[in-house]
From TrEMBL:
Organism: Periophthalmus magnuspinnatus
Disulfide pattern: 115-124
GO terms of molecular function: calcium ion binding; serine-type endopeptidase activity
Residue ranges annotated for the Peptidase S1 domain, each copy included: 246-493
Main location: secreted
Gene3D superfamilies (UniProt xref): Coagulation Factor IX, Laminin, Trypsin-like serine proteases
EC main group: hydrolase
GO-annotated biological processes: blood coagulation; proteolysis
UniProt protein name: Coagulation factor IX
Gla domain ranges (all copies): 42-79
Function: Factor IX is a vitamin K-dependent plasma protein that participates in the intrinsic pathway of blood coagulation by converting factor X to its active form in the presence of Ca(2+) ions, phospholipids, and factor VIIIa.
Length: 501
């Protein structure tokens, strides 16, 4: 027999009540959460004013901002890490910003697009195949960018074809085009051997070459276009030519290098007229010739030569083949920074304006010029290039009676500098062979270093100097024409638009 105490009686009554009213024990989820969860503390009362910032209150109980997270940590590194965890800056990849199949990676207040191999840009919006860095944008000559789109340009004497990429000659004697082959008859704009007639119709009109030059600067705001040493001097005399600068080359076909020019003195001793050539040069237009500056300096290093002329259309120096024309020089322009005494081969270039225009023909054609980046690219990537001249066939040997040509590869700059004790400046580059007996030699100075790109020849260098000729471990050194393009273009009459510098 169990004695029921008043306390047990009271407890039993409680449990009996629970059994009788069990359905009242359970309540809805919403009501339970209201009882069991404590209120969130953000923005309540004086919580945020009186208490120190708290991570749980700021970023777990609500969606915090970067500013609120920074107040908690008081440290940028920890803030950035936690914001990535708690999503304080939101999902930067929603909606997806990447184009052309790019994959988006969310970051703190930023995102990164991982692009497919053929696209680039922040949002993978740039198709690389349509950029100047890939195959020159498909352009025959010069490539520019306008509003992220490729724009092609042409050298003087050319126009863009229907595809807006191909450059088509506008006349029979456009620059850089060799018209001579085994079955081609020579052509000329004028009748041969007329030296004083009006020849303006044969001129390449550089004065109207306006919009193309605009592209040749680094940046042009008008159209919003973005474009992608001295060794020991020679002792020159009238009896011979020992000027540094073809050994191991081949004879050129007549008319194969129609821009080749010969610079010579006229020897009238003993009652005769005999040409004494001393340097080479290149024809830039019907009135402009470019050569090496040191060719125009007398042995005293001060006096500029005046007693010379230029001959175009030459092949065999012992024969009159009907294509040769002699021209006097009216004006000489040596590059302003050239200093014969300080460094006779640095900035080694000069321009000659002819007194009479050249009668352009298949044997007398100018070579094309190009902007800096274009020339730099083709001389390195389109190598080998072609050098030519009537220089000595070996060091201190006889000169060649016929025009010689030689293919030479570009030499990487470090190798170039290491090959010589002489100073190789930024205005120079090397080309040639380390062991093959092939090189430019004495008498070739001032002549062309030409590079062919998509059927057009461009002047990329000027034969300048070397240590002997075809010597093992030594190369020919050339003036880097690309560095002087703007000066040349302005001097010969290409007009540039006004631009902010």
């Amino acid at each position: 027999i169990v004695k029921i105490t008043p306390q047990m009686k009271s407890t039993g009554t409680f449990y009996f009540s629970l059994l009788c009213f069990a359905e009242s024990v359970f309540t809805s989820q919403q009501s339970a959460n209201a009882v069991l969860s404590r209120p969130r503390r953000y923005n309540s009362g004086l919580e945020e004013v009186l208490k120190k910032d708290n991570l749980e209150r700021e970023c777990k109980e609500e969606q915090c901002t970067m500013e609120e997270a920074r107040e908690c940590f008081e440290n940028d590194e920890k803030t950035c890490f936690m914001c990535a965890v708690f999503g304080a800056d939101g999902d930067q990849c929603n909606p997806p910003p990447c184009q052309n199949g790019g994959v988006c990676q969310d970051g703190v207040n930023s995102y990164t697009c991982w692009c497919q191999s053929s696209f680039s840009g922040k949002n993978c919006e740039i198709e690389l195949a349509q950029q100047c860095s890939v195959d020159n944008g498909g352009c025959s000559h010069f490539c520019g960018l306008k509003e992220q789109q490729v724009v092609c340009f042409c050298a003087p004497g050319y126009e863009l074809g229907p595809d807006h990429k191909t450059c088509t000659p506008t006349g029979p004697f456009s620059c850089g085009r060799v018209n001579i082959d085994s079955g081609t008859k020579s052509r000329s704009l004028l009748t041969p051997r007329t030296s004083n007639s009006d020849q303006r119709n044969s001129s390449l009109d550089y004065s109207g070459f306006d919009f193309n030059l605009t592209m040749f600067y680094e940046y042009y705001e008008t159209d919003n276009i973005t474009l992608w040493y001295g060794p020991k001097l020679r002792n020159r005399t009238r009896k011979g030519n020992s000027d540094h600068r073809i050994v191991g080359g081949d004879e050129a076909t007549p008319g194969q290098i129609p821009w080749q020019v010969r610079v010579a003195l006229m020897d009238r001793r003993q009652g005769g007229d005999r040409a004494l050539p001393f340097c080479g040069a290149s024809l830039l237009s019907d009135v402009w010739v470019i050569t090496a500056a040191h060719c125009l300096i007398e042995k005293d290093g001060i006096t500029i030569r005046n007693d010379f002329f230029v001959r175009v259309g030459e092949h065999d120096v012992h024969k009159d083949e009907g294509h040769e024309r002699d021209h006097s020089v009216s004006v000489k322009y040596i590059y302003p920074n050239y200093n014969y005494k300080d460094s006779p081969y640095d900035h080694d270039l000069a321009l000659l304006r002819l007194s009479e225009p050249v009668q352009l023909s298949d044997h007398r054609l100018p070579i094309c010029l190009g902007p800096k980046h274009f020339l730099e690219t083709i001389v390195q990537e389109s190598s080998p290039s072609l050098v030519s001249g009537w220089g000595r066939l070996r060091f201190q040997g006889p000169e060649s009676p016929t025009l010689q040509k030689l293919v030479v590869p570009y030499v990487e700059r470090t190798t170039c500098k290491e090959s010589s004790r002489e100073r190789i400046t930024r205005q120079m580059f090397c080309a040639g062979y380390t062991s093959l007996q092939k090189d430019s030699c004495q008498g070739d100075s001032g002549g062309p270093h030409a590079t062919k790109y998509k059927g057009t020849w461009f002047l990329t260098g000027i034969v300048s100097w070397g240590e002997e000729c075809a010597r093992d471990g030594k190369y020919g050194v050339y003036t880097r024409v690309s560095h002087y393009y703007i000066w040349i273009a302005r001097r010969i009459g290409m007009k540039a638009r006004n631009r902010k510098v």
